Amino acid sequence: MKRALASALAAASIIASAPLFAQQANSQPSAVQAGDYALDSAHTLVRFTVDHFGISEFFGTFPGATGTLSIDPTDIASAKLDVSVPVETVSTTNATLDEELVGEEWFDAEKFPTMRFVSTKVVKTGERTADVTGNLTLHGVTRPVTLKATFKAAAVNPMNKIYTIGFNAKGVIKRTDFGVSKYAPLVSDETTIAITAAFEKQAD
Predict the structure, then answer these.
(1) How high is the mean pLDDT in each 10-residue block of the chain (204 residues)?
(2) Domain 28-201, CATH 3.30.420.40 — does that match?
(3) Which of 19, 91, 174, 179 is most exposed by smallest CB count within 10 Å?
(4) Contact 131, 99 (CB under 8 A)
(5) Which residue range or ranges hold the Lipid/polyisoprenoid-binding YceI-like domain (predicted)?
(6) Residues in contact with 25: Cβ distance below 8 Å, sequence separation at least 6, in sequence order
(7) Domain-by-domain residue ranges, the chain?
(8) Is there a contact between 166 and 179 (Cβ–Cβ < 8 Å)?
């Protein structure tokens, strides 16, 4: 009983503090601390969406991304991004399909265990937006891809006390360009990529 009461009080304390945490987040890009950042893998997710036989949209996720970001809010064009994603982590909530997707006819995770995006150009398009162009390597093929990125906010994470910045990004690729052609075009060639990412500032 005491343990349950303690847990309830702790949860209530976190909930009560939530508005304070939210107020600490700053959505102004100019306030971002310049420097080097490491991707917060636990709070970053890559999602892909395809059209399934023209009947419905179907999506999956790739958790476990790692990477780095170098950024200066006064010189966005100089930003550098390098992110890698383990292919074997693909999840669609369907275990049978997940096993199929990591196989030779799809992503072939054993031969090509990682997909990687390395930025080559960053162009500011709005107060909080930018086009991030880079080389995407997937299934052993490297091609240029442009992601439309939006800055969400920055704050000191109240849990680990690390200064963290967050972004959302979206782009479209043709999977057959990367040699992933199974069932195309019944399962659409055009694939939408949506990313939510958090980056933690590294010590100077």
Answers:
(1) 49 49 79 97 97 95 98 97 98 96 97 98 97 98 98 95 98 98 96 98 91
(2) no
(3) 19
(4) no
(5) 36-200
(6) 153, 154, 155
(7) 28-201
(8) no
